[in-house]
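Budget justification, computational time. The allocation requested in the original proposal was used primarily to generate structure tokens for proteins on the priority list. As evidence of use, we reproduce two of the resulting records. The first is shown immediately below.
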Amino acid sequence: MMMHMQGRPKMAIVDPNTLAVLGLKNILQEVMPIITVDTFGSFSELQANNPEEYVHYFVATNIVLENRQFFLDRRRRTIVLTMNVNAPMSDFHNLCINVPEKTLIRSILALQQGAHPHGKNMPPLPRILQEQILTDRELEVLSLIVQGFINKEIADKLCIGLSTVITHRKNIMDKLGVRSVSALTIYAVMHGYVDINKI
């Protein structure tokens, strides 16, 4: 049952670990700029704030265990935040958060692609993000950046000067309004410019 709220879809993070919550909220908002993310330190806080209006819950393992029936009834909306990649909870989608940022972003993108193939059930991206706003050369540079190449390697691969790469890089970030390689990675994968397996 997919609920469509007026305006932006809402996601909830339920986890007592404040730092983990803030980091995950930041990444989710970069992956899906069209969502609103609310954070709760406990299950009772979530329950007191219209839990049914959330399209997804990202929930700490212990909170799922203590309130298993609630989340089992909403298992398609629940993503369990685990600390150990080898200990997933079998009834749910899992997301191991105890990993490097690049790995975490890759997992979130894979979840997002798996759960919403071709963006089904996801609201349309703002038009500015749907249009190709980068030149072909900028797309080449973007692709190499998110595959982990440094400026010097990009210059060599594309046979352009180092200062040209730096200029392209700045223009790409300005045009897309992003500041991190993580955000560039998200943009490139979501638009099909880079295969998720290459990042």
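The second record produced under the same allocation is shown here.
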Amino acid sequence: MSVRRLAKEQPASFAFSADTTAKAEWWIKKYPEGRRQSAVIPILWLVQKQEGWVSEPAIRAIAELLDMAYIRVLEVATFYTMFMLEPVGKTALIQVCGTTPCMLRGANELMRVCKEKIGPKDHLSADGRFTWQEVECLGACSNAPMAQINDYYFEDLTPDTIGRIIDDFAAGKTPEPGSYIGRTNAAPEGGPKTLLDATLYDGRAAKPIKKLPNSDPAPVEKAPA
């Protein structure tokens, strides 16, 4: 595993927003008394949703909120790659899957387009609106190549479609996530190949269950008072 470090440039301070505070308290209450430290991962995620990344002052604020050592929060934040330790694009964080199925289906071409339109990977674009990364398997192998953009999966991509998606984000639009070849979930290209007859699974072919003789439960005798 690569070493993950905090960004060299850090903000002077951090403050929880009212919305983040309310959600953090909701998470803390899910755990038994004295176990509030168990909420560290969801609260780190809430902070990232608020700021876009996790800063050093934010880690200290979380440690104080959860009454735990600063180093313990730092260990969690640096271990899980879902936590961004440097500022990322305010408009879109594009994570292109580079694992074998996506690579075989053209992930390198998607990365080439990202580099042309945004700049080097793992760096903010010149306008501060975009960041792109290469990541490992995101679990949508049947719909390769794909990318996670902010919170959503964009699947069955081509250099043309990823380029249009980036342009749409830049124009202030909200591109539709999902398959870009019209695939339904993870079905084969062109549609399903099995279970084409809806009566096989919609209940219409189900037969009523025959009641077996003597299937009524025996009456329960009450104990004498």
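A brief technical remark on that second record: The mean pLDDT is 92.
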